[in-house]
Amino acid sequence: MENVLNLVIHHLIIDGTSFRQFMFNVQRFYQLLIESQPLPQWASPECYFINQQPENSLTQSELALAEQRAQDLIGHPCQLMLPHSSYKNEKVESKMLSLPETLIKSIQVLADKHNATRNIILQALFVGLLHRLSGQNDIFMLSPVSMRPISRGEEGGCWVNTVILGHHFTADLSWSNLFEQIILQRKCWKAAKHIPLANIINALRKQKKEHSLERFNLMFAETVALNDSYRFSDGVTVCENYEFIESSNDLQLLYCQAENGEIHLRLNIAPTINQDGLFNAFMVQYQTALETVLVNSDQRIIDLPLLTPAMIAKIDQRNATAVAWPDHTLAQQFYTHVLEQPDHIALIDDVTGQQWSYGQLHQIATHIANHLNAMFTDPRQMIVMLHIEPLAQLVIAILAVQYAGMIYYCIDRSAPEERKAVMKGVVQPDLLLVDQPQMFALALPQLEISLLLE
After folding, report:
1. For residue 377, what are the β-bridge partners?
2. What is the pLDDT of residues 98-124, one digit of tens each?
3. Average pLDDT value for the chain
4. What phi, psi does 169 have (nearest 5°)?
5. pLDDT value at position 343?
6. Could you read off the pLDDT of 198-237 as tens digits, one per residue?
7. Are 157 and 104 in contact (CB under 8 A)?
8. Is residue 246 over pLDDT 70?
């Protein structure tokens, strides 16, 4: 018999550190119970959650910091400007990626080289990819920060505030430059990280009432328990998975260090921001970006290849439809059908519904070709510009020109006269074959195909 206990905890009452402590105690207490040992006392946690504070509870320096942080946001988009969810709460889709311990060591080496942290490297890859996929040069997102004092390390509750991180991209920005930018951003927010986000947003509304302040739709965070599991001594398995049942963000990248040393990443996507499948391959692209940066962090972000070798191979495979072109011409191929099946339908006018068999088309094309050949001493050196709109007539004209052994070039009838004049200079045609008399200054002999079809 299998029993399943599904435990759901609201994030308002527990953060990552508390969750780890909670799961440690679950494992510890469970072991004591199966050994019939008494359970120790567990002190009630002191719940702590940063919410908007009354302005009179903030000091003057804190109010000034809130106003400064708000000022930094004016004129910048709060959202990734893609088609996004119109509903605040929406069931999310998820994409997973696990990084092996060997790769994590390389990330740490890179972080040490740039006086950064692993968190900064992973964040840079996230926003760098978003910049490449969206083309947006300013990307702002939310990122939770721990407010837990070291002395409260074993207490429960949620000791978390949220800061707003901005990223500005230019054509020559490298990954190394982006690391430096994020480090500077985090330093700017460090002094204000204890001020609730709601107070900063409120200060922004006061400073810029006409500012179009929509909800932030991006989140990057380190968390705990992403698809992690372990077994108790009697075979019971505990599965930990920090998961949003509903989300007010359209796009979230969460990561955590697993018990086996791997880093697990999960991209949560609101379905309506991914209607065109833009983020379907995001985690594959993320790993490709990571491997690229580990090789050369001075590479410009704009030079990051979005297609992986596997994607390119798949595209090449799908496009491998080439066949050897036959030695004979289009006219010769058509004439083969004329001989084999002269009464079969070869062409249908989708406007008038008129139909022509292979035999009929052969007769018409031969008639026009003879007329063209009679116009020139050496027709095989002649270029005919086709200025014909009805598709059926255009097909007949192409076939006739091929029958005559001439060269043809099609020009769009709706093109501006200047464009037509330029193409005349490039192609240098000898004849203009039209579906109706044309009045433009191309100074070319004209032949009306409709007269030859009668």
Report:
1. none
2. 999 899 999 999 999 999 999 999 999
3. 81
4. -110, 140
5. 94
6. 777 777 777 655 444 556 788 898 887 666 676 777 777 7
7. no
8. no
6 pLDDT more than 80: no
Distance CA 140, CA 126 (A): 12
Specify the CATH class of 330-453 in words.
alpha beta
- State yes or no: pLDDT of 188 exceeds 70: yes
Options 3.30.559.30, 3.40.30.10, 3.40.50.2000, 3.40.50.1820; CATH for 11-310 is 3.30.559.30
Residue 389 CB neighbour total at 10 angstroms: 12
Which of 274, 238, 239 has the alpha carbon at shortest distance from 90?
Answer: 274
In order of 37, 51, 80, 308, 373, the CA distances from 250 in angstroms are: 47, 22, 9, 25, 67
Per the CB < 8 A criterion, the answer to whether 388 and 453 are in contact is no
Residue type (1 letter), 64: A
Q: Is there a common fold for 11-310 and 330-453?
A: no
Tell me which range, 96-100, 122-126, 132-136, 332-336, is most confidently predicted by mean pLDDT. 122-126
Instruction: Tell me the β-bridge partners of 172.
Output: none
Q: Six-digit token pair at 148?
A: 């837990």
Give the range with max mean pLDDT: 96-100, 203-207, 322-326, 412-416: 96-100
| The two three-digit tokens of residue 413, written as one number | 């009838």
- pTM (predicted TM-score): 0.62
Q: Is 301 exposed, middle or buried (0-12, 13-18, 19+ CB in 10 A)?
A: buried
Helix (H) or strand (E) holding 348: strand 345-348
Q: Is 281 exposed, middle or buried (0-12, 13-18, 19+ CB in 10 A)?
A: middle
SS3 327: coil
Question: What is the Cα–Cα distance from 178 to 163, expressed in whole angstroms?
Answer: 18
Q: Collect all residues with Cβ–Cβ distance below 8 Å to 202 and sequence separation of at least 6.
A: 52, 66
Domains of the chain, by residue range, sit at 11-310, 330-453
